[in-house]
Design brief:
homotetramer; 343 residues; alpha/beta; Quinone Oxidoreductase, Chain A, domain 1; Rossmann fold; seven-stranded mixed β-sheet; six-stranded parallel β-sheet; 27% helix; 24% strand
Amino acid sequence: MKALVYHGPGQRTWEDKPKPTIEHPTDAVVRITHTTICGTDLHILKGDVPTVEPGRTLGHEGLGVVEEIGEGVANFTVGDPVLISCVTSCGRCDYCKRGMYAHCRDGGWILGNMIDGTQAEAVRIPHADNSLYRLPPDMDPSAAVMLSDILPTGHEIGALNGEVRLGDTVAIVGSGPIGLAALLTTRFYSPARIIMIDPDENRLAMARQLGATDTIASDPIDAVMKLTDGEGVDVVMEAVGIPQTFDICQRIVRAGGHIANIGVHGKSVEFHLEDLWVKNITVRTGLVNTNTIPVLMRILEAGGVEPALLVSHRFALDEIEQAYDVFSQAAEKKAIKLLLTAH
Amino acid sequence: MKALVYHGPGQRTWEDKPKPTIEHPTDAVVRITHTTICGTDLHILKGDVPTVEPGRTLGHEGLGVVEEIGEGVANFTVGDPVLISCVTSCGRCDYCKRGMYAHCRDGGWILGNMIDGTQAEAVRIPHADNSLYRLPPDMDPSAAVMLSDILPTGHEIGALNGEVRLGDTVAIVGSGPIGLAALLTTRFYSPARIIMIDPDENRLAMARQLGATDTIASDPIDAVMKLTDGEGVDVVMEAVGIPQTFDICQRIVRAGGHIANIGVHGKSVEFHLEDLWVKNITVRTGLVNTNTIPVLMRILEAGGVEPALLVSHRFALDEIEQAYDVFSQAAEKKAIKLLLTAH
Amino acid sequence: MKALVYHGPGQRTWEDKPKPTIEHPTDAVVRITHTTICGTDLHILKGDVPTVEPGRTLGHEGLGVVEEIGEGVANFTVGDPVLISCVTSCGRCDYCKRGMYAHCRDGGWILGNMIDGTQAEAVRIPHADNSLYRLPPDMDPSAAVMLSDILPTGHEIGALNGEVRLGDTVAIVGSGPIGLAALLTTRFYSPARIIMIDPDENRLAMARQLGATDTIASDPIDAVMKLTDGEGVDVVMEAVGIPQTFDICQRIVRAGGHIANIGVHGKSVEFHLEDLWVKNITVRTGLVNTNTIPVLMRILEAGGVEPALLVSHRFALDEIEQAYDVFSQAAEKKAIKLLLTAH
Amino acid sequence: MKALVYHGPGQRTWEDKPKPTIEHPTDAVVRITHTTICGTDLHILKGDVPTVEPGRTLGHEGLGVVEEIGEGVANFTVGDPVLISCVTSCGRCDYCKRGMYAHCRDGGWILGNMIDGTQAEAVRIPHADNSLYRLPPDMDPSAAVMLSDILPTGHEIGALNGEVRLGDTVAIVGSGPIGLAALLTTRFYSPARIIMIDPDENRLAMARQLGATDTIASDPIDAVMKLTDGEGVDVVMEAVGIPQTFDICQRIVRAGGHIANIGVHGKSVEFHLEDLWVKNITVRTGLVNTNTIPVLMRILEAGGVEPALLVSHRFALDEIEQAYDVFSQAAEKKAIKLLLTAH
């Protein structure tokens, strides 16, 4: 079969590779029908993620059809259409029993990282009963593939960790794919106002289309303070991953407010406890557990969210190298999420 | 009457001052029977709290008897024995209606800060209906005075903000008065283990007496990791207020764990988001709201907590200058909390 | 002034009465600009509410302008446009401090019950600081008057007590005014499905307009089981107040589900613990606290709810007797809520 | 091997039966070292539980040693000392993923009910990874066996469903084994007062030993109202299972309070919604999920609870018929829980 293989910093090829097989009784092999590329894949290609070794197939998002199952798999049979969670979870360790799949003692984010991933014609999924989700028959794949990672991340690490409540004023710093996913899922909890902050006007226009009530391209601290009569916001989400954007969050959160960190940070930040110790704030961090995939699927079926709007570009699966080229120039190409379809 | 008056950095005297009077219909004047000294009072004396102007009577803790009430006061009458909350709250602004008294728009921590405090023979208490609590007849004053500030702070900003749960492993960094108050109130929620961390062996001995299951005087990160099989702790409370102790907290909190910051910080800290972004942790900060005073009073009446054990030294109220001398050498004098009694 | 006065079962007149005056320092007198009629007013007229004595002015909902304030009132001044909460609360008793205004020790539901109410040209509001809410300048009065009682009741006793969560299947038994208010506010929490149950097809049509995904006019237990593959619903709200409708709730709630009782019951019901003891369900009851009025007002301002759609008929205030005639034949007249406007 | 077999109402014998074997890859066979008898076993013997067919081995509590495992079992190996949960759970259905093991689609309470149970020399445990818990080396078996059912039931269905909070006044109606287990676990949450209600003075004496602050043998409604100044209790637990005791609960719960139903009810009860609709109360029911077994085990190890105090009588496993005789005359024999030990 073909797979997108990492060969060290800056090097990736769509090349032949042996098809995966069942290694453990709880495994399934899934033929990929759709996949996408995540910002994290670009980080890997920069060499920033040391756990990814050369020879690894990338990708941790996707849809497919079950081709083979181990004898310990109970929830699926061959031929089932499935959604692949970006997080693999055994379902029986202490973390899994608490719903903390990201910290599974025999899983977590390993796809396209410690084991071969989904940017291929087929993938082996360990602990299939807990790591795959049956796709409803008529679900639009452009929407469904967003449930592998980006929508649950926006939801769990943005909206839920931010404890968005009815009537809140929410700010999201960063209007890229993950910020927009946070925006879409924040709306489930009916805040009064969602302020998107990003220097890129294209992305802010997209944010307004997806339900942002206010957008800010420059001087975000002043602008938020003006919009909120100097009070600041109830919830702020960091969706970039650098010290400057975390700093904005600290400056605009109001007393009693929440900071939800979604961004992947490569270095430490300065945390202004000399101001914040007295402000009764909460900061939360986290990797997605994807334990909200079932409920997101119900909402998607009910028409309560339209994640397909995040898909800006479409490719055939074997055009994936071209897709990487587009995604790595996201701003210029106005790329948000790409859909890759196997034919 | 006599009062302990601040006259600029390093300068305080027990001196004559006019007795306070009712200024607003919701005020009460309380004759002080007992008070104590807080670590914050020492910070004020160093000149670290710029809102405190020379001429101010210090103190924000105390018990007393209502001597005079404004015509808008409904909950109290002259002669009532009362506990004074360190936080004044109007009860009718948006923050107060949410129980966030620390951020009251006409109050907050103002006693002994923006207005004259409790280290005096009498004090004016604004918004008496929300800022005073009736004392049960037979309550030990040594215990009761701990409910003005230190016990609710340990409880709200330590145990509640740390979300201590049944069976948790909790670490408290700093075994001074506030760390010990956090220890006492953490026990309400039945953790399996409470680890106290402090270089002072006297304070650790006190912690063991008050219910710590483990104590650590040096190399706290290694020691905690050994005690927890490398997992770290479910909850860690910062009860010192310097970057080094906040750093210990970041290093020993486990995935999914909580950091509750109780310490008063004078400068920013380095926050290791490069490690913590992936760990699903929560950091909370806060000034005490004292909205748990009523429940703490019920527990105290029921014999469920013994805060009088925190009282290490006793003085007459007019010996307060001597008490300050002792408290400012807390380590040498083995001082925890001091009880000052008017005669 | 004129007022709608109760003179015993079945007897009410729009008649002259002395204008109310300030009786306590925390009172305000409000000139009524808009009011409405509640189903409870009809119960009173049947003689079902023994606390209402002949001579009482009815009504507990309304908007107006502050005409006079006691000297203890801080949040309002003469001329302020205000919303009147159906629940009066002192703000300083133990229940009020916990946000349980319905059980205020010097208030609760007393307007148009134990004291004269809002169906008059003016009304005295005790504890004005906690019982009135400032109206934003451009708020549509048809919408705003729904915030006195019916919208907070649907929200607090329906959506919040039912613990509606993202993706839930919710059933509401009773599509009258309160059932429809529960429907509008349930939508804040993004359930996947809202099933309205009522024998009246007009009311079901209204429910569909307001966002119901399914409606059931007959055989509700079978119909719900068919719609839910035999599982039952996550949340069911009782919005009628009779044993038969409570019974439906018990039959359609799924394991782990919630029953929120909104209906006003005149007699006991049979509770099927022989089936339900094993089903891990929750039943909640309650009188509205109206402590969510501020957040509902923010949502209304942000365009997130359209309660004005509940207004089916409009009258001048002095046509109130005619309005009562219409409202007491609600089904025939297709009446939901009536708006009475003073001129 | 020997097993205690049900042969229809009133008939049970300790008799030979084939030893269980692995039937599914996720099964384990456990050699029983300790077991006990539950009140539910007596109900079964009365013929009250129609799912139990003649020929069934009874019992759903116990400790043992793993003798054989299916190839899909990952958490255990032969020789491991284990605690058996009374609830079997697959860990991968929708209910299990939400922690609702009692409603597992391939499990729930089936041991000694739909499949052979633990009152035998060996038992087959389906879904062993989720239904067994490793025993710490030095745990007292008298204490540990209480974690199969009675302690998690008291905890989850009593203390947690009752939402016991710091400083609450709690009443428990019924001071039998389950009421006492509720008492022990309620103490984890530091209520100010625990009132036990039971006509049997022996059981009340036991309750006082285990931490009850007040006990009531007769006229419970009046007595509770006297103890609480007419307010009623914050939390009341029904630990009997008949209409009269549920009625007591309704009469003594205060506004805003909680009723936790633990009792197994054979018929419906009269629910006084005509009084309670206005009182903002919560009623919860449930079968135990046993998902708190791990935390209870940590607390037991830490010395935070002493369930061994519930053991009133000890027998050898092959004396089980005699043990049943004693347990069926619990009041006369002052029996609470019996420990049966295999030799």
